[in-house]
Amino acid sequence: MAHRKRGYRFKNDWPPEHQEHIEQNYKSGVTIPVDVKIELEHHVLNLENVKKILSNARTISVMDCGCRAMYGHCDKPVNVCLDLNEFAESNIANGVLGARKVTLDEALDILQKTHEAGLIHMAYGHGEFYEPGVINSVCSCCSCCCGILAGVLRFGLYPHLLTAHSIAVTDLSACVGCGVCVNRCQFGAMKIVDGKLSFNQDLCFGCGLCVSTCPTHAITLVDK
Question: Cα–Cα distance between 7 and 28 in angstroms, integer?
Fold first, then answer.
């Protein structure tokens, strides 16, 4: 897909001043097991990890994704951003982007649908209720609209915001070269070369999008 290429810009895209704001104000992020507490503001999480976070939340709300609502570069689901506990309660009270309370089952259904749609689950700790190491927001992001992913993947900015503790591993003997994983991967880690899968581990962030849709179950996630 054209928009996943380095340097690609839409006519209506994130302005340089916003990118500078992210560069100056956001800490690093990492894909981590949810039981590890570290002072980070951004985590790329696979579906099972996100489910664990939501199961421990007192209050869950959903609201529109501000990035996709603003730029609309894709037709992915919009009403998908989940907030937790005090942050959720504050957004509901203030009507932020149509925030409303949802049950755990409803939140998990949203996650399942966004995962199927090929969105990357990203967890944040931010806002007035931010505490180091505590996640209070889970977004389902795309590289065409999301400010963080667009900056890292398309503009080559602030690479420190995303690192990984998990990585995909492919059993090449089971791989049939169908290319489903290539279409699912927003990081460009997978390509089909001469009918065979070529995998660049340095570009993998362990989001798990490729794992769940591999028709031969040739891909798994392991600790990096």
Answer: 22
